[in-house]
Give the backbone structure.
Amino acid sequence: MRIGVIIGRIGGVDGVALEAEKWIHVLRHMGHKVFIISGQYQQWSFDPEYNTLVVEMSFFSPESYWGQKKAFFHPDANIDELLEHIHLYSKIISDKIIQWTREKRLDLIISENASALPAHLEMGLGVAIAIKKLGIPTITHDHDFAWERGDRYISPHPEINKLIDKTFPLRLPNSFHAVINLNAQKVLKEKYGRDSIVVPNVMDFNMDFGKLDDHNKNLRRDLGLEPKNRLLFQITRIVRRKGIEVAIDLIHRLKDKNIKLIITGDYKDDAGSQYYQELIVQIHDLKVSNQVLFASHLIHNKGLVGTGTEKNYSLSDAYANATACTYFSTYEGFGNAFVEAVLARRPVFVNNYKPVYWPDIGCKGFKTVMLEDNQLTDEKIEQMREIIYNDKLNREIGDYNFTLGKKYFSFDVLEEKLKELIERVLH
């Protein structure tokens, strides 16, 4: 089949882009020809035969930026100019999608979150217009929805809220939904009567990942650490919902100067740096500044596997040096960092983030130390302590979880789900 993928940006490190890449890889492995139309290609080998650039579709385009600003953040009293803007650029985008679909002779379209979250109003409406006109079978890969984001996508303008309610998520007879967790499936059915298939986020369990080698063994040295140190890695961005303060408190309560917490995220991910500053104060107050290290200057989140150059470490290199990983998030759409740790055969200390972790991941049988509401009890700390110090137990947990991860979150699973999706949308 000739399949077209619509996405705001591809090649970056955000969850939508990463999972879209995996879908494209597996679909091509299945023998399909896959074409991409996007507003931005980040670290992507651009092939004009398969890649089409539409700058208006970028989240960072003037058109999208102005639309978001006037719809949600700095609205004008007069709504007419905003509505005119949205309809003008949605038509430009829809016309280009229609032209692309006909030029590439597409049999199926996949809309990557563009039809689920109103992060780009003009693109979402443009996709809806194009899909309706074309009548082509469409899968909407819905990573997150407006109602999952609190009041972020509630506008002071009733007209905008009405537009969002009508357009997001896409609900056309020729479209079918793929969601990333069971709660989204449940809410989509309750709110709109729409059926969907849960397609979990996956990893390639056949790749070499998280293994020590001659290059990444130097990460400890470059962080100023010693061989006797046991390293807990927080391999996430620095944003409040990641619960990094719990990991810092854990380091304090373990009462061992040889246990270090390595935070790979950059403080620039934290808007206004308020949360980052709170973490700095906590580190100072608990007197653990010699045990908590920020490592974004050495470890780059731009790819799972790095180039092997000096002092340029990848996520794989970080996992290779981890004794265990901390993952005390309060909310995730799925939990990519959890699956990464499983792929690297590293134990995970996790919070039961609602409503996703237990129904979609934890209930599969993974061996973890799981907190409820991020409460670090003495019992849980002792369980973590045993995993940190008992190398045999640590390896056994890593190997056991890897086997489960391959069963539930591998590319083979994704291939089966994609076959099911294509069959559903075509019939």
Observations:
- The chain has two domains: 2-202+411-426, 216-408.
- Residues 113 and 143 are 6 Å apart (CA to CA).
- The chain has a mean pLDDT of 95.
